[in-house]
């Protein structure tokens, strides 16, 4: 097995995804780790129980199933440890709670996932933490926003719904110089296309609900820390008593095996459609970092190995009073796309984006923003469905 580990260290993404997080020799040769349901774990004697001197002591401290998933995520992230959470939002909020205290100041990118903003504006505020939202283009200039009590800088690249890029290394260096830790929501790229810890981030966060699960039937989150911050992240999560279930962990492990090939398909189809949409009547902008026309394209090209299957378009509405009607006409005409808030699954989805909570990255003036999750359907069918939507919007 040591020889296999050495080979996998230099293997390609799909080879690693097929083999990490499982050791058939530990489970009688079965390829997939078993689903171990556990709360109580028995000890052979009182001394072992007193010292917890065995690998497993209680369900909240891990099972063979959850450990297998943690091992796989650590391999992908290059992290010292990973905690498993019951949702992507929990994967954001638990690190915040583990590292922030009353009287602290946190900097959060303005293009952040909107439920994260809600948590900051409600729970963190009630707990005495001040949150300030910053421009994703800040880069090294974020140093100007740092205060003596700034303890955490949260990043997300690309940003939710509008896909602004960030200079993660420059932000991390400035934040560390000011004594803050850096967290990053990296759900869009996954560690296959961007590895946050290699760019100075301390805690990498994923909504594993999306591409790792891949089938729109699991809610899950992971947060992975470097060696310096792993003990505090683990202790914070243990104190909160939040765990990922073994059944969901098994589903995520199974999804990981095909994530690479699925991402390749998502990426190829989405980019081809984004390029096509740039020239379509009724579309004023296509918000996709892999397009050379996108303002953050140079950062994406410098730091990322690929792009995923979600981007947005801005319709040409003419006047603000037609935004809603145009968006609804587009969405209601779709037949292949589902109308749903998630993404990362096998099916295409569309949603009219609400950007009313933004303070820096405000909504485009030309028209409504429609976020498109490009699934695994044939590109000709997806394209025809988008054409149906555009025709309906044009008729309003």
TrEMBL record:
Keyword Transit peptide belongs to the record: no
User: What's the cofactor?
Assistant: pyridoxal 5'-phosphate
- Cite the Pfam families for this sequence: Cys_Met_Meta_PP (PF01053)
Q: Which UniProt keywords apply?
A: Lyase, Pyridoxal phosphate
Residue list for modification N6-(pyridoxal phosphate)lysine: 210
Q: Which reaction does it catalyse?
A: L,L-cystathionine + H2O = L-homocysteine + pyruvate + NH4(+)
Source taxon at top rank: Bacteria
Q: Which InterPro entries match?
A: Cys/Met-Metab_PyrdxlP-dep_enz, Cys_b_lyase_bac, PyrdxlP-dep_Trfase, PyrdxlP-dep_Trfase_major, PyrdxlP-dep_Trfase_small
The biological process GO terms on file are:
L-cysteine catabolic process to pyruvate; transsulfuration
Molecular-function annotations in GO? cysteine-S-conjugate beta-lyase activity; pyridoxal phosphate binding
Gene3D superfamilies with a match to the protein in the record: Aspartate Aminotransferase, domain 1 (3.90.1150.10), Type I PLP-dependent aspartate aminotransferase-like (Major domain) (3.40.640.10)
Question: So what family is this one in?
Answer: Belongs to the trans-sulfuration enzymes family.
Can you say what this protein is called?
Cystathionine beta-lyase
């Amino acid at each position: 097995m040591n020889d296999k580990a050495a080979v996998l260290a230099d293997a390609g993404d799909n080879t690693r995804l097929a083999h990490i997080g499982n050791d058939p020799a530990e489970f009688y040769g079965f390829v997939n780790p078993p689903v171990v349901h556990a709360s109580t774990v028995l000890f052979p004697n009182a001394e072992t129980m007193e010292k917890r001197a065995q690998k497993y002591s209680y369900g909240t401290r891990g099972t063979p199933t959850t450990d297998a998933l943690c091992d796989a995520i650590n391999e992908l992230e290059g992290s010292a440890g990973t905690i498993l959470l019951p949702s992507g939002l929990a994967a954001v909020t638990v690190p915040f709670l583990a590292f922030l205290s009353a009287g602290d100041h946190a900097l959060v990118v303005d293009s952040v996932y909107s439920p994260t903003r809600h948590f900051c504006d409600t729970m963190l505020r009630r707990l005495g933490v001040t949150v300030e939202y910053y421009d994703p283009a800040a880069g090294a200039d974020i140093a100007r926003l740092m205060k003596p009590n700034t303890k955490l800088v949260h990043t997300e690249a690309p940003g939710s719904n509008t896909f602004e890029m960030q200079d993660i290394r420059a932000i991390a260096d400035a934040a560390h110089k000011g004594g803050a830790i850096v967290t990053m929501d990296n759900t869009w790229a996954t560690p296959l296309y961007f590895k946050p810890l290699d760019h100075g981030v301390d805690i990498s966060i994923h909504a594993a609900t999306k591409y790792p699960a891949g089938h729109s039937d699991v809610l899950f989150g992971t947060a992975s820390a470097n060696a310096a911050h792993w003990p505090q992240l683990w202790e914070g999560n243990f104190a909160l008593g939040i765990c990922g279930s073994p059944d969901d962990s098994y589903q995520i492990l199974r999804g990981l095996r095909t994530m690479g090939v699925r991402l390749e398909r998502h990426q190829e189809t989405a980019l081809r459609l984004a390029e096509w949409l740039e020239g379509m009547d009724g579309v004023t902008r296509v918000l996709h970092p892999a397009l050379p026309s996108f303002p953050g394209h140079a950062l994406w090209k410098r730091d990322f190995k690929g792009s995923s299957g979600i981007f947005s378009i801005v319709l040409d509405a003419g006047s603000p009073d037609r935004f809603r009607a145009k968006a609804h006409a587009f969405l209601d005409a779709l037949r292949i796309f589902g109308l749903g808030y998630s993404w990362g699954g096998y099916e295409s989805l569309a949603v009219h984006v609400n950007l009313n909570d933004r303070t820096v990255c405000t909504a485009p003036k030309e028209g409504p923003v429609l976020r498109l999750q490009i699934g695994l359907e044939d590109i000709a069918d997806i394209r025809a469905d988008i054409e149906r939507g555009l025709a309906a919007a044009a008729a309003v």
